[in-house]
Specification:
The structure is a homodimer of 417-residue chains. The first copy, chain A, is α+β, with helices and mostly antiparallel strands and 417 residues long. Chain A has helices spanning 16-35, 58-64, 83-92, 136-152, 167-176, 184-192, 199-204, 208-223, 233-244, 307-316, 338-350, 364-373, 384-389, 407-416, and strands at residues 39-40, 46-48, 67-69, 75-78, 101-105, 108-110, 122-131, 160-166, 249-251, 265-271, 279-285, 300-306, 329-333, 355-358, 378-382, 392-396, 402-405. Chain A contains 14 helices and 17 strands. Chains A and B meet through helix 1, strand 1, strand 2, helix 3 and helix 4 of A and helix 1, strand 1, strand 2, helix 3 and helix 4 of B.
Amino acid sequence: MKLSTDSYKGARDFYPEDKRLQKYLFGVMRAVCERYGYEEYDAPILEPTDLYLQKGNQEIINEQTYTFTDRGDRSVTMRTEMTPSVARMVAGKRQELGYPLRWYSIPQCWRYERTQRGRGREFYQLNVDIFGDASIEADVEAIRIADDIMKDYGASADMYDIRVSSRELLRELLRQHGFDSTMESTITSVLDSYRKPSFDKKRTKLDQDSQTKLIELLDYIQQEDVLQLESGKRLASIIDVLEKQDVKVTLDPTITRGFDYYTGMVFEVFDTHPDNNRSMYGGGRYDNLLEAFGAEPLPTVGFGMGDHTLQCFLELHELVPALQSPTEVYVIAIGQEAVTASQVATELRSKNINTALDSTGRKLEKCIKTADKKSIPFVLFVGETERKENRYTLRRLSTGEEVKGPVDELAQVVFEG
Amino acid sequence: MKLSTDSYKGARDFYPEDKRLQKYLFGVMRAVCERYGYEEYDAPILEPTDLYLQKGNQEIINEQTYTFTDRGDRSVTMRTEMTPSVARMVAGKRQELGYPLRWYSIPQCWRYERTQRGRGREFYQLNVDIFGDASIEADVEAIRIADDIMKDYGASADMYDIRVSSRELLRELLRQHGFDSTMESTITSVLDSYRKPSFDKKRTKLDQDSQTKLIELLDYIQQEDVLQLESGKRLASIIDVLEKQDVKVTLDPTITRGFDYYTGMVFEVFDTHPDNNRSMYGGGRYDNLLEAFGAEPLPTVGFGMGDHTLQCFLELHELVPALQSPTEVYVIAIGQEAVTASQVATELRSKNINTALDSTGRKLEKCIKTADKKSIPFVLFVGETERKENRYTLRRLSTGEEVKGPVDELAQVVFEG
């Protein structure tokens, strides 16, 4: 039987050129997070299933997890999101850790979903959280980091829109419009789809009375300055501080962030491109995170950012940079010069130049083609004449331009780029 | 019910200090591989189970995999090793890729094993492979990279021993001592355990005739120069070139590398420490990698290196460096100075200084303690007096030494380290 070369459905292979892009994407995330004093952590991709049976999105738990029984009869689930794992880790060392904790991670998560554009069965998601800081500065910081990441990818302010609201405000609005606490979760979920195609379907599932109240609520928030409400004051301060720090945000009380666990400020970052006008990612404040573990409560604010939607955004706005190979020089041994070629390669490496060595003995043109295919900027030829003269030829593949000289001099050319 | 804060049995949580060590370990691997012109790739952690049902270690397949059926009724297996995945990827683009390919990856792998020292249920394993190069220079390069990695961790030549042999040589030795081809796989596996506690158990399971032949074989390789054999010539050249490049290796015909797929040179790196005198990792040449996919054969040489055994080695030889926080400055807002403190932090960040901001309003001593707990080297105080004078205090936590000045000057102190 011949084995298939396809990867598992909905999961991606990362060939070097794909991995190079991923390293760039993750590199920007890491740089911004660390600039704000966040430290990276990680957790196992397999978790006890119990961890996901608490609060959360029921649809994901019941229909979308990769859950199975291990050989020791334990039910395990492949990570669907990082929040339960990080809550577990923080609860496990609740007393030992120094607060506020600033933590980030870029875990891979798995969900069994219908595969579609911008959504596979696995994705990576940057998670950024500040634990143990109830101040509005922490809310501000989460949004600033999200904003800085967009800017560091080269996005300009008109390409995306950060929409903010808060759960306190939402609760007051719901009460004001006659929804009691039993309806809170349902209406929150309907509002969460306000800018999604599923909104009408979700809305019309409500009873007639709720539909009427919902329309009144939507009218109200369009016409009134909700920040004047008692519950809007904290949100008003957050928006005010952000504006002073040149971070543009839009108040939007329809932003709820689906999940039940949010307790305060919530935000979502939208792509403004007409072909992709949708929410890309978001986050907010969730102060009851450790409850399920019986640990002392901890005020927390954070966000998650998936790699699929990010990549769509960057491609659509033409923000993906041309990425070069990490290899700088391709040394080609001509004829029987493998030993000298190896010495030359070693010398270049000792000068911190990433150098691949081709001692396959193939035709020169074939070797050059290989270097070109890998987008390696320089090739260096080592033949008998070169060895005898101790002068080698360095060719820049983009222009065909050549320099001849001892290794030292050629290394200098490579350094200069 | 109170949820447990334990991670899944046999799997590790990486708190920031653990992740910092991992980043150091992987950073060295990446730097050495890229120095030799290797490019990073990755594959999904879930693979179709069929991929593992071909050649390989039967024990792992039958008893040690995490295998389950997905919601679409496909049998999937969590990656146990990277080789089947990389073979799949290369076979999938057999004609498009430019050879020789130099690829590396640091995937996480899962095996359901009894948990013990240096062995959990998940581990990371550096995989380094050169595809499409049949020359002895490729064999040499694989061993040189393994050697360079050890040196880059600070290991001296007496701390480890690279033992080499080859499957061609092994086959000639087996034939010479009367083992026919049906016994090859069995004896290869017994020899693989020669330096392990399981050797006696495995050996005594053989019939009396095979046991006698095996003893004769072991005597023979101790007394004779096996490199003089016809099948030893290629290995002799590899050893010769390595010696000329100052890489110390030991010939050891008992090295076989268990797996059936090796076809040529094989090597293992041993820890020489008396408390841990065992094989840490290894690799070799395996030229029939793509057979199962019906793709054109491709000469390949590579190795894998697990993170557990590496970490044991570094700890035992006291080679784990003291690792600092990526955060350089901890800005503390005193009293009502959150706005100014935030401006100071922004200014430091704009100078590429990783800066965390503490605007919790806690007692100063508590804030300093937090910075210290996170091994952040500097704290910077922002109070009312400081703001009015536009001069702030920077304290180096290790010595208690303080400097007062505008942000520009303090940034300079941080740069100087």
